[in-house]
Specification:
Arc Repressor Mutant, subunit A, two-stranded antiparallel ribbon, 5 helices, 68% helix
Length: 117
């Protein structure tokens, strides 16, 4: 079953190893060996993670002679950010309402303290 691009991206981001690989690639291009170095897994295991990241358009692989450097691609991350924008607005609105409510409670509490003195 083929997933839509956003689902592919979210699936790829769900794994902590793949997120760590992306964090490393945010520093610059790297080979599979360089990406595998911090992990306790085989090169084929790392390659499977890279294929998932590539399918989700989060990375691309170049070709320079025998060297196939991986690089971070940001378009898919921008798509996720765009999808999250509506939810960010929702939470901003809810936090604004909570702040107003807390201000009202504090004002009411201050009025009660002042009338008792």
């Amino acid at each position: 079953m083929a997933l839509d691009p956003l689902s592919n991206t979210l699936f790829a981001l769900a794994d902590p190893t793949r997120r760590a690989i992306l964090a490393r690639l945010a520093e610059g291009e790297a080979t599979v060996n360089e990406l595998a170095e911090p992990f306790d897994m085989s090169l084929p295991g790392v390659s499977k993670h890279l294929k998932i990241l590539e399918r989700a358009r989060l990375i691309s692989r170049g070709k320079t002679a025998q060297w196939r450097p991986c690089r971070l691609e940001t378009a898919a991350l921008q798509d996720v950010d765009g999808w999250l924008t509506d939810y960010r607005k929702l939470w901003d609105h809810r936090l604004d309402r909570l702040e107003s409510y807390l201000t009202t409670l504090q004002a009411d509490n201050s009025n009660e303290d002042g009338s008792k003195a």
